[in-house]
Amino acid sequence: MRDIFGKALLDYYNGNYSEDIITSTNISSEDGLPLPYLFRPYSEMPELEQTALQLAKGNVLDVGCGAGSHSLYLQEKGFDVKAVDISKGAIEVSKKRGVLHTEVLDILDETETFDTILLLMNGTGIFQELRQTAKYLKHLKSLLNPDGQILIDSSDIKYMYEDEDGGFWMDTNANYYGELDYFISYKGEKEIPMKWLYLDFETLKFACESVGLQCELVLEGDHFDYLASLY
Questions:
Q1: What percent of the chain has pLDDT over 90?
Q2: For residues 51, 109, 35 and 89, what is the CA-based torsion angle, rounded to 10 degrees?
Q3: Are 191 and 185 within 8 A, CB to CB?
Q4: Is it the case that residue 174 has pLDDT exceeding 80?
Q5: Residues 6+ apart with CB under 8 A from 50
Q6: What distances in angstroms separate CA 201 from CA 74, 107, 225, one per listed residue?
Q7: HEC sequence for 30-63
Q8: b/e per residue, 182-198, with b = 16+ CB within 10 A?
Q9: Residue 186 forms beta bridges with which residues?
């Protein structure tokens, strides 16, 4: 990875904000990801994220912490929070913003245990592909303390395949429809494309049950998104 995401966060933090990250997928055109949004305070977070933060308990692992906004809120509330991300730039920004416990780390390499594990802003994305979901869920389960919880959000993107007549044009011979190729560019530089997974709730619930996790729907958002609690 070239860590374009991290470079963009560092630019914004250091006062060099001139343009946003550009994202696209294999089924959608280019769209801007505003950098200020990644630094938003609790009051500007979507209800799903606010709810997840209110449900946090004990010591917390913030997976894919980005600029550290979720971690900072919980830390200010007195929680012991560890923020991890594979982006070196993101971790540098999180540290500079005041997150006390940070690490550049792939979640599959985490070994500590926690009372709450947060995976927000489409937390299922890190699973990459449906066939890898069980592997990630098993590992996340191994990181839970007794009575621990995983709070994760995602979206059912079936709507993106709907045609004008209300039908769906998905290829039944293709992979699961939530598996996307995700592209990022910033200031003319392109990141290496990555796999990104959106999971509908029923598919997530089935995957959880296959590895011995309970999965409950906590809240549904306004646009096919949801927050789930795994335990």
A1: 90
A2: 140
A3: yes
A4: no
A5: 42
A6: 26, 22, 9
A7: EEEECHHHHHCCHHHCCHHHHHHHHHCCCCEEEE
A8: bbbebeeeebeeeebbb
A9: 189
